[in-house]
Amino acid sequence: MRAEELLRTHTLWCGDVVLLRVQGELDLATAPLLNQAVTALLAGRPRTLCLDLADLVFCDRTGLLALSRLSARAHAARATVRLTGLHPHLHRTLTRYPHASPWDPDHTDTTRYRAAAHPRRSAIFHM
Q: Model confidence over 8-18: pLDDT tens digits?
């Protein structure tokens, strides 16, 4: 399978907040696709980049490294990064080893932030 078939991203802008929904597998083959998507989004200078990982079905060490680099790049661009829709295993990995993760536990959540994509649903979207 091609990388484009293994990882898909969908973007929704709402003012200076961008929601990037990531679907599929994040690994050695697909990390460059996430990098390209984030590069394009950061060019728009969002204040907040919200990554919805609810539909991420696989993430290996390379994927974790890609997320870490993404966070560093976003912070360098003065954007806040929030993670949502984390699978419990990924959430534990990101919060259990804070020295290996740039994620503040306050910026991660295992629920889905879908208010921007689905305005009729109630939201837990804090900015």
A: 999 999 999 99
Q: 3-107 belongs to which homologous superfamily?
A: STAS domain (3.30.750.24)
pLDDT at 57: 92
DSSP 98: G
What dihedral angle (degrees, nearest 10) is formed by the CA atoms of 71, 67, 13, 78?
Answer: 10
Question: Is 80 in contact with 47 (CB distance < 8 Å)?
Answer: yes
DSSP three-state, residue 6: helix
Q: Where are the domains of the chain?
A: 3-107
Contact in structure between 125 and 50 (CB atoms under 8 Å): yes
Alpha-carbon distance 12 to 56, whole Å?
17
Whole-structure pTM value: 0.77
